[in-house]
């Protein structure tokens, strides 16, 4: 089993900043990718940013230039620094982690989600 614990959501005014954290624990042998997705009311879940164990990153166009994803591989933790937040960034943000367990099985888990609300 793999557990993901998220923190850092909240209410912020437009133009403000928030930092999300997600720590993975459990029967982890490796974490190949950790990322953040978000889902606004009435919309599908969408990618925000993802970081691979090799240091590669990928961002949604809406996040480029404003959000920064980073990883602490020693702690199996991923962070999302969000700056210049806009009301349209309001959503539930979900952490995702994929990799292999100590038994050699592939896993892909989601966190419980953390609410980010940006007021205008």
**What is the tally of helical segments?**
0
Distance between the termini: 40 Å
* Number of extended strands: 11
Percentage of residues in strands: over 45%
Briefly note the structural class of the backbone.
Answer: mainly beta
Largest sheet: 7 strands, mixed
Output the radius of gyration.
14 Å
Tell me roughly what share of residues is in helical segments.
under 10%
Approximate shape = elongated
Could you tell me the mean pLDDT? 95
Low-confidence stretches: none
H-E string: EEEEEEEEEEE
Considering the chains and any ligands shown, give keywords for the structure.
120 residues; mainly beta; 7-stranded mixed beta sheet; 4-stranded antiparallel beta sheet; 11 strands; 0% helix; elongated
Give the secondary structure arrangement, pairings included.
Layout: E1 2-7, E2 10-13, E3 18-26, E4 28-39, E5 46-52, E6 57-59, E7 67-72, E8 77-82, E9 91-101, E10 106-110, E11 114-119
Parallel strand pairs: 2-11
Antiparallel strand pairs: 1-3, 3-8, 4-5, 4-9, 5-6, 7-8, 9-10, 9-11
Q: Can you walk me through this structure?
A:
- The chain is mainly β and 120 residues long.
- Helices cover 0% and strands 62% of the residues.
- The protein is built from no helices and eleven strands.
- Strands 2, 4, 5, 6, 9, 10 and 11 form a seven-stranded mixed beta sheet that branches.
- Strand 4 and strand 5 (46-52) form a beta hairpin.
């Amino acid at each position: 089993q793999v557990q993901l614990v998220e923190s850092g959501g909240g209410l912020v005014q437009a133009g403000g900043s928030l930092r999300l954290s997600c720590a993975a624990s459990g029967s982890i042998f490796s974490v190949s990718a950790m990322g953040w997705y978000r889902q606004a009311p009435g919309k599908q879940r969408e990618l925000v940013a993802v970081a691979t164990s090799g240091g590669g990153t990928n961002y949604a166009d809406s996040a480029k230039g404003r959000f920064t994803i980073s990883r602490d591989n020693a702690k199996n933790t991923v962070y999302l620094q969000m700056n210049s937040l806009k009301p349209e960034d309001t959503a539930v943000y979900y952490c995702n982690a994929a990799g292999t367990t100590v038994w050699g099985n592939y896993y892909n888990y989601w966190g419980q989600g953390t609410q980010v609300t940006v007021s205008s």
